[in-house]
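Journal club prep, notes for RB
We'll compare a predicted complex against what the paper describes. Inputs for the S-adenosylmethionine case:
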Amino acid sequence: MPTWIIILLTTMGILIVCKFLFAFSLVSVFPITQGAMFHPSAKVKVRTFLDHVPMNAGDLLVDVGCGDGRVLRAAKRRYGVRALGFEVNPLAYMLARLRTIGLEGIEVRFKNFWNVNVGDADVVFCYLFPDVMGRLAHKLERELRPGTRVISCNFPLPGWRHRELLYPESPIHADPIYLYQIPALSPHPGGRCTCNPDWPRSHNA
Ligand SMILES: C[S@@+](CC[C@H](N)C(=O)[O-])C[C@H]1O[C@@H](n2cnc3c(N)ncnc32)[C@H](O)[C@@H]1O
């Protein structure tokens, strides 16, 4: 058999195995993710988030469903934060671990974030799925401290009032990014989440 055919067949075989592994990793965790599948944020989205959400070195950023860890890495690089991600998709988790090898201050845990209290976070990032946003809103209301910022890509937190709504400057990745902040005092009468009017400048010490 000619070499080029062997190379072609081998490449196709590898691609098919990769596709199968990817599909399997999505399906196997569906009961947990409920549609929030492994789909990494586009770079322009991560950049837009970081441009508008300044953080202090040492702040704790938590990505609930961190995928390949790109948000954690970018935030660590830009602001020197401590970055913690939870992931249940084995493929995404392995990628995240591989890509954060040797990076101090970034931790990725193979864990269902519903079973973890994220109350220590200064900033929570999520890019999930509409079906879980209501449950997530209740969890974050219970656990987060006043002043904590919450960033949700694509999907709003039901009942929360966003502080800012961003649109990445990209024709193909123009989905909204919702910025929230847990209220410092009592909840705003019109909604469960209100904000410090200085935000985000007050976090840019
Ligand atoms: C759309 S991806 C976003 C990944 C990453 N946050 C980003 O923006 O690039 C959502 C990720 O959340 C993970 N996920 C969904 N539900 C989860 C849960 N309960 N615990 C941990 N990870 C979860 C999925 O496996 C998936 O990788």
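Talking point for the session: The mean pLDDT is 89.
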